[in-house]
């Protein structure tokens, strides 16, 4: 290969499959010849998807590695489209491919599955890619990855797919059918149906398959405001509106700092402490803050928010806890492939520990905003209910805060957030609201 292999932030223990060469793979010369026939974008996409599949990197990080930055703008765009598209549609692509295999139950080697998914995604979802390019380069990728015996099958499956009719109009679909069609694990969608209803679950799945929505909630965007999802910004705007005269503010899970920046932008006379348990993430956050003049008032501290040490109390605390991220699948498509239901209780116990410790630092009459980008009740309302039971902390409804933001002209008239309040807390849903799925509850300490 002419290009250097990709460098994920954590170097892989093994090289990507495209360069692994089992003894049975035929001559090195024929693999070299095959890879030379593959365009840089498809080659890069194949390597990134291999690393993501092996758990050796996050798609977003890998798509910003020096090797990808060195590609032409056109190749970078195609690489991104291929990686994000395959990750979003993987479940649906695999289901379609299975129907075209001679033995649908057969387990394919990972590089073969990957070559098939890449080809199928281009054939089914990209209008401007000639079918022969999608097909022949998938075959060459398969050969170059040391799977020459599978090239005939890859060719045959993709030919059948290219010739097949597009699916007809759907009258009614079961949850199982639309989960698969829209590339989601059925168990996850069933949870959303239980929590939010079938129509909302369908809209969430549809939204997850598109590029993340452009800002559609706020009237003011860009300028000296940080770039971030509108749902994430909405959480921070609500926090700033909840305690507009806050003098002391603590963002206890701050990295990468988007919400801290909104707090600093709005609360012009507040001293703001931003902490995170990860020194590396906080260092990147500090570097980000340097680009904004109003962020000079932010003090960054590496700290574990579950630690009970520290005596300072705060008028406003933002507790934007780590979570499963199921409200952000459009931007983070691979989460769906890694996630297991057992993860929710594990997340919840960490979230409860953070919230419990943070509440101890709240000044009398102060407010804490607990938030996640998860759609799962275990990580959201159930954490809050579990932690505040039997304490003198009370929930403070968010409706009035949304009205205040709207009355101040900050929200667009078509923002349609009236349905984004459940039991007094903010609950945005992708596809239902024009942003990622966020949960935020405002909690108030007795005076
Ligand atoms: C959801 S992210 C925060 C996003 C951030 N508020 C923003 O809007 O840009 C959660 C952060 O919590 C940090 N974290 C995880 N466990 C923590 C703990 N025990 N104490 C402090 N920070 C923690 C993670 O490193 C991660 O950066």
UniProtKB/TrEMBL annotation:
It comes from Edaphobacter dinghuensis. GO terms for molecular function: RNA binding; RNA methyltransferase activity. The active site is at residue 373. S-adenosyl-L-methionine binds at residues 253-259, 276, 304, 320. Coiled coil: none annotated. Belongs to the class I-like SAM-binding methyltransferase superfamily. RsmB/NOP family. Gene3D superfamilies: NusB-like (1.10.940.10), Vaccinia Virus protein VP39 (3.40.50.150). Keywords: Methyltransferase, RNA-binding, S-adenosyl-L-methionine, Transferase. Residues 23-34 have a biased composition (Low complexity). Pfam families: Methyltr_RsmB-F, NusB. Residues 157-446 form the SAM-dependent MTase RsmB/NOP-type domain. InterPro entries: MeTrfase_RsmB-F_NOP2_cat, MeTrfase_RsmB-F_NOP2_dom, NusB-like_sf, NusB_RsmB_TIM44, RCMT, SAM-dependent_MTases_sf. PANTHER family: NOP2 YEAST -RELATED NOL1/NOP2/FMU SUN DOMAIN-CONTAINING, RIBOSOMAL RNA SMALL SUBUNIT METHYLTRANSFERASE B-RELATED. Residues 1-34 are annotated as: Disordered. This is rRNA methyltransferase.
């Amino acid at each position: 290969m002419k290009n250097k292999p990709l460098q994920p932030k954590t170097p892989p223990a093994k090289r990507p499959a495209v360069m692994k060469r089992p003894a049975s793979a035929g001559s090195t010369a024929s693999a070299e010849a095959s890879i030379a026939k593959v365009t840089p974008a498809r080659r890069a996409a194949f390597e990134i998807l291999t690393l993501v599949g092996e758990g050796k990197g996050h798609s977003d990080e890998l798509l910003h590695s020096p090797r990808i930055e060195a590609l032409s703008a056109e190749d970078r765009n195609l690489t991104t489209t291929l990686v994000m598209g395959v990750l979003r549609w993987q479940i649906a692509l695999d289901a379609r491919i299975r129907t075209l295999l001679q033995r649908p139950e057969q387990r394919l080697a990972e590089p073969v599955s990957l070559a098939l998914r890449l080809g199928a995604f281009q054939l089914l979802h990209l209008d401007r890619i000639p079918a022969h390019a999608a097909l022949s380069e998938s075959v060459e990728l398969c050969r170059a990855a040391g799977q020459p015996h599978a090239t005939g099958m890859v060719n045959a499956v993709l030919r059948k797919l290219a010739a097949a009719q597009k699916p007809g109009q759907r009258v009614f679909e079961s949850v199982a059918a639309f989960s698969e069609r829209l590339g989601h694990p059925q168990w996850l969608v069933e949870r959303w149906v239980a929590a939010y209803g079938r129509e909302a679950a369908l809209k969430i799945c549809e939204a997850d398959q598109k590029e993340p929505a452009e800002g559609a909630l706020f009237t003011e965007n860009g300028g000296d405001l940080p770039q971030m999802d509108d749902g994430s910004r909405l959480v921070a705007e609500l926090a700033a509106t909840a305690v507009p005269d806050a003098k002391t503010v603590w963002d206890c899970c701050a990295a990468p700092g988007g919400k801290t920046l909104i707090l600093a932008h709005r609360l012009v006379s507040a001293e703001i402490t931003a902490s995170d348990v990860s020194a590396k993430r906080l260092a990147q956050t500090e570097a980000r803050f340097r680009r904004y003049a109003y962020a000079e008032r932010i003090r960054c501290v590496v700290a574990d928010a579950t630690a009970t040490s520290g005596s300072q109390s705060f008028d406003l605390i933002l507790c934007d806890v780590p979570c499963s991220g199921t409200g952000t699948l459009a931007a983070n498509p691979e989460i769906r492939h890694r996630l297991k239901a057992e993860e929710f209780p594990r997340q919840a116990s960490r979230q409860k520990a953070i919230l419990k410790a943070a509440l101890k630092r709240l000044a009398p009459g102060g407010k804490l905003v607990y938030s996640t980008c998860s759609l799962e009740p275990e990580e959201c309302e159930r954490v809050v209910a579990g932690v505040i039971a039997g304490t003198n902390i009370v929930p403070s409804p968010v409706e009035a805060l949304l009205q205040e933001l709207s009355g101040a002209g900050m929200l667009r008239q078509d923002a349609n957030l009236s349905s984004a309040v459940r039991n007094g807390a903010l609950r945005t849903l992708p596809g239902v609201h024009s942003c990622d799925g966020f949960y935020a509850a405002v909690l108030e300490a007795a005076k």
